[in-house]
Design a protein that fits this description.
This protein has about 140 residues and is mainly β. The chain is built from no helices and ten strands. The chain has a five-stranded antiparallel beta sheet with strand order 4-3-10-7-8, with no helix packed on it. The radius of gyration is 18 Å and the shape is elongated.
Length: about 140
């Protein structure tokens, strides 16, 4: 068995483009398949990050309403976000919202942050102690 020990991988033709052989003969672009941000945080009372990648801070906008602020911005606002929240003993997927109806919020999804909410089955916002988000897309 061989061990490869390196600090940097760079594409030969294009520095920021590395292809990895996937299943069969299909190639996957390494940069496109990497998570650009992720965060696990406690959304109860005083919100607090447990662990994260490329997460500068969190904003508590009120009950069950959070903004995740990036350390390094995305290149555009066409990235994908996967979000879930719940109680520590029971975690279930709850809807993400990009805008709060009637609240006049136009900054819910941008290159520097996204805004999410956790709701109960009756659609009322609720704080949860287990909140997770992951972002896929292009960094600026």
């Amino acid at each position: 068995m061989s061990t490869l020990v390196i600090d940097t991988i760079q594409g030969k033709t294009t520095a920021g483009s590395i292809n990895v052989r996937g299943e069969g003969s299909t190639n996957t672009n390494l940069q496109q398949g990497l998570a650009k941000t992720w965060v696990n945080f406690n959304g109860n009372s005083t919100i607090a990050t447990r662990d994260s990648l490329n997460n500068a801070s969190l904003t508590d906008n009120g009950t069950g309403d959070y903004t995740v602020n990036f350390t390094n911005n995305m290149s555009n606002d066409d990235y994908a976000v996967s979000w879930n929240s719940g109680l520590k003993s029971i975690t279930w997927g709850l809807p993400i919202f990009i805008g709060l109806s009637g609240a006049g919020n136009s900054d819910c999804f941008s290159t520097s942050k996204f805004r999410v909410g956790s709701t109960q089955p009756d659609d009322n916002l609720v704080d949860n102690n287990v909140c997770n988000a992951i972002t896929l897309g292009d960094l600026a």
